[in-house]
User: Which sequence fits this backbone?
């Protein structure tokens, strides 16, 4: 019992760390990691989404295209950034930049820190699901290396939409889940109070995700969490990032794309149970079909079965 | 002589619960057998009830044409997930209740003679949720459609990703979409049919990406749940929000199709959407220029004058070339079993 409580507490502490307001955000990390960064704006279709940032950067001398969700550090900025929850135009902006990266043969680095894509009528009207799906589709076949970094919250489809990559890195105290622990608890436990239990059940910490194969690499954070020392956190991430970019740059493109396809193709275990191979039915003859039609239980001729009016079907026949 | 009163049968105390269904839309009491005959559409108000996978296949495919593949795929419990019930128990209960092994069925079949690879989901099995098995079936259907060069039809009926499989369920979005994307690039058509409901991770993956998206009337189709949406705006949602007609109005659904028309619409689409003859060249910037073929118009012309009859054999030929079932990828299955 005590063990369960301890586990709940430690996992929940990680969730809180991943959501810590003082944790370094995408722009901050890019500022610390990149030699130079030029932010670009707008999806060319509807607008510019402040919850998603995108641009051109140079990391250790390498050109990269950077996209990532951007939360705010304090309330005003958080409201402007919509708490890092992108609308469809955010994902369409990032797709625009990724397509540019493909054309110019520049690798893509994504930073994931999102509670979830923005839920709301205007988001639905403009096709948030379509934007996410299309972004996943684009990344699955983008002919340039992609490194995805989960820096904070990896919240469901809104996270995966920019987290399809050749290598997925996670910071030590980041989390990745199919639904927020509060949402999961409300549905399966019927109360959001069980969020900590749900967080444990979903195995959402970076270490658990690495064990499942969803994350390839966990980068250690400074003592107590990245919020305590942004520079050190960024330096550790930069080292891992540059190493991965180097490895991926050496890979032939066709191999890269095939390996990326295989990476996602192999995620999610299942069993295969031998089923009895039903031989292709030789068409049943008329006599057989009649026999089947009549069945064994019915009285084929004469008076209806006693005790049951003929217009009422026997109970067992309803499905 | 005493008057003989007509004998009334005593009302049964308990009627079988599944004899009648109350229409949630017009509140009419509907006799189940008649409802089934009407394709589970309320004859009074046109409300579309949910269809089981089996009924959906029967509705869409030519009689007896369906050949199921990979029927033996079975969910495992990768996280050891326990909420109020253990995940394997939930799966077992759903299997008992539905007679299905998981929430999707795929195989090959024909629609008025046109061969298709088809995958159908069933909301009755754990809300049609997509875990590794459902994701695998959609993916195998797409890959098989690509190999056989026959169109892919997927009928969605799902609340989204299966929470009990955690991020591995989330990864099914990437797995399925990567496969349908390959199909798209190779010029093999994909028709997505969205039935009630198509939400969350299923809508945010393959279901939204059909070359043609069809939806059944009034089907709930959306990304986030209504409660979450209402919470965001702190008020009432507009009428018809996240319904098929809403999606149609905003340009995400090509056609809203009544169930009685669905098969004929699908057939009409399949008549147009033949897979391209040649694998489309998708990467023009690969350095080498396409070879110059000054007489290529002759080949194109020749294709056009091939008599009608040959088309039929073309279909049959491609249907015959379908890949094998569960053993298609033995290496991959071996470490899972």
Assistant:
């Amino acid at each position: 019992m005590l063990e369960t409580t301890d586990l709940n507490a430690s996992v929940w502490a990680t969730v809180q760390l991943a959501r810590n307001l003082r944790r370094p955000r995408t722009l901050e990390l890019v500022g610390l990691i990149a030699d130079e960064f030029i932010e670009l704006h707008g999806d060319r279709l509807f607008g510019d989404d402040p919850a998603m940032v995108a641009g051109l950067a140079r990391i250790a001398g390498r050109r990269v295209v950077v996209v990532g969700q951007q939360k705010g550090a304090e309330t005003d900025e958080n409201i402007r950034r919509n708490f890092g929850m992108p609308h469809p135009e955010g994902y369409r902006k990032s797709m625009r930049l990724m397509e540019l990266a493909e054309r110019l043969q520049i690798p893509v680095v994504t930073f994931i820190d999102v509670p979830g894509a923005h839920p709301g009528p205007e988001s639905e009207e403009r096709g948030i699901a379509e934007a996410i799906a299309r972004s996943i589709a684009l990344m699955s076949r983008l002919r340039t290396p992609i490194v995805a970094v989960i820096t904070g919250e990896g919240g469901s489809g809104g996270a995966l939409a920019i987290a399809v990559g050749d290598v997925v890195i996670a910071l030590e105290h980041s989390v990745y889940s199919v639904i927020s622990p509060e949402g999961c608890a409300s549905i399966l436990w019927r109360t959001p109070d069980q969020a900590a239990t749900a967080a444990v059940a979903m195995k959402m910490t970076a270490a658990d995700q690495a064990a499942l194969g969803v994350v390839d690499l966990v980068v250690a954070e400074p003592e107590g969490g990245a919020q305590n020392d942004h520079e050190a956190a960024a330096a550790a991430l930069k080292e891992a990032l540059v190493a991965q970019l180097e490895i991926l740059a050496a890979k032939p493109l066709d191999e890269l794309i095939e390996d990326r396809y295989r990476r996602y193709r192999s995620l999610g275990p299942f069993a295969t149970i031998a089923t009895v191979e039903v031989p292709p039915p030789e068409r049943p003859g008329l006599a057989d079909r009649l026999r089947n039609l009549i069945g064994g239980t019915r009285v084929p001729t004469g008076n209806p079965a006693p005790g049951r009016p003929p217009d009422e079907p026997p109970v067992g026949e309803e499905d | 002589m005493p008057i003989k009163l007509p004998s009334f049968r005593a009302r049964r105390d308990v009627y079988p619960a599944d004899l009648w269904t109350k229409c949630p839309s017009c509140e009419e009491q509907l006799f189940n057998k008649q409802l089934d005959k009407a394709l589970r559409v309320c004859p009074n108000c046109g409300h579309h009830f949910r269809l089981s996978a089996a009924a959906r296949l029967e509705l869409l495919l030519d009689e007896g044409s369906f050949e199921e593949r990979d029927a033996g795929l079975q969910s495992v419990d990768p996280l050891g997930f326990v909420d109020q019930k253990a995940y394997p128990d939930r799966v077992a209960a759903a299997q008992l209740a539905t007679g299905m092994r998981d929430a999707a069925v795929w195989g090959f079949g024909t629609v008025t003679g046109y061969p298709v690879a088809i995958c159908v989901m069933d909301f009755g099995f754990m809300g049609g949720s997509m875990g590794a098995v459902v994701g695998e079936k959609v993916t195998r259907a797409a890959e098989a459609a690509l190999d056989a060069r026959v169109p892919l039809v997927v009928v969605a009926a799902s609340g989204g990703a299966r929470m009990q499989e955690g991020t591995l369920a989330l990864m099914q979005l990437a797995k399925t979409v990567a496969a349908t994307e390959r199909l798209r690039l190779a010029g093999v058509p994909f028709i997505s049919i969205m039935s009630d409901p198509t939400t969350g991770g299923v809508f945010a993956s393959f279901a939204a990406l059909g070359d043609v998206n069809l939806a059944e009337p009034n089907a709930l189709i959306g990304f986030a749940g209504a409660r979450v949406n209402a919470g965001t705006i702190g008020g009432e949602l507009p009428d018809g929000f996240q319904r098929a007609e809403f999606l149609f109005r905003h340009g995400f659904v090509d056609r809203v199709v009544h169930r009685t028309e669905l098969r004929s619409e699908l057939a009409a689409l399949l008549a147009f959407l033949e897979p391209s003859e040649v694998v489309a060249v998708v990467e023009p910037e690969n350095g080498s220029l396409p070879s110059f073929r000054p007489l290529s118009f002759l080949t194109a012309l020749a294709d056009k004058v091939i008599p009608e009859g040959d088309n039929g054999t073309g279909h049959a030929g491609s249907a015959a070339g379908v890949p094998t079932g569960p053993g298609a990828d033995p290496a991959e299955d071996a470490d899972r079993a």
In short: Residues 2-265 of chain A form a domain with the 2-enoyl-CoA Hydratase; Chain A, domain 1 fold (CATH 3.90.226.10). Residues 51 and 280 of chain A are 56 Å apart (CA to CA).
